[in-house]
Design a protein that fits this description.
13 helices; mainly alpha; elongated; two-stranded antiparallel sheet; single chain
Length: 250
């Protein structure tokens, strides 16, 4: 199965290759230590469902059916091959599903609302601070400074990355118990907050230091710093929750 997945990864674009390679490394790390078993794999009939999803994804060009097919096949393989591991197999499928870029490829409209709402909230913040603000879609005019929230810098790639990072953190802090599922819906919200903070941060720097500086090195590293700050706050929150309720709470 791993060989087949490797072939599929190589057939994808460069961005997908690195994303899935990192995901595979994460899954391996999260499962250590692993105790294997030699139970025979399910019969051919059990693999028809994953195969049908994979074929449907290839015929339609959608990533989600392929991701579901690979996730289903992973569960069939893991339940027959893994006796026990640090991350239970029953939860592994969530990480396996989220690392595939199906949000980026199959749901571009989500990225539009992701950017539109971030621009709207950022504009409202600067309006409350006393700046004259005009907004048209994802384009802002803040104090005479034009700000365009483009898909390349605040769209689907960022959303996918933040969702994966959030799921990784949840799995790390709550590998068992229901707390993981309770907190899972908060991950998209945290991703949206991080993206909105990035838009507002770059706009604030542009107003204070000039457009050239904000679009230069700060555009990349400053935005990453904001995201790192949000992830740091998420880690602090999860650490607090784990200390209060435990990592394997019922």
């Amino acid at each position: 199965m791993l060989a087949a997945l490797g072939v599929w990864i190589c057939l994808q674009g460069e961005e997908d290759f690195f994303s899935l390679a990192l995901a595979a490394a994460f899954l391996l790390f999260m499962h250590l230590p692993v105790r294997w078993k030699s139970t025979p794999l399910p019969g051919l009939a059990a693999w028809m469902g994953p195969a049908a999803l994979f074929v449907a994804g290839n015929l339609t060009g959608f990533i989600l059916p392929q991701a579901l097919g690979w996730t289903w096949a992973f569960l069939l393989w893991a339940r027959s091959s893994v006796a026990s591991s640090a991350l239970p197999v029953s939860r592994s499928w969530i990480a396996f599903l989220f690392v595939f870029p199906w949000i980026t490829h199959d749901f571009p409209g989500v990225g539009w609302w992701f950017r539109l709402s971030g621009a709207a909230v950022s504009g409202s913040v600067f309006h409350l601070l006393g700046f004259p603000v005009i907004r048209e879609g994802t384009r802002l005019l803040v104090g005479g400074l034009p700000v365009n929230v483009e898909a390349a810098c605040a769209g689907m790639g960022l959303l996918q990355g933040l969702l994966v990072a959030g799921v990784v953190l949840l799995l790390f802090y709550f590998p068992t118990g229901r707390t993981f599922y309770v907190l899972l819906p908060a991950i998209p919200l945290l991703a949206w907050v991080a993206n909105t903070a990035r838009i507002a941060g770059i706009t604030a720097v542009a107003l204070s230091e000039g457009v050239e500086f904000s679009q230069g090195i700060f555009h990349t590293w400053g935005g990453l710093a904001v995201i790192a700050l949000m992830l740091g706050l998420t880690i602090a929150l999860l650490t607090f929750l784990r200390a209060r309720i435990g990592s394997s709470s019922p």
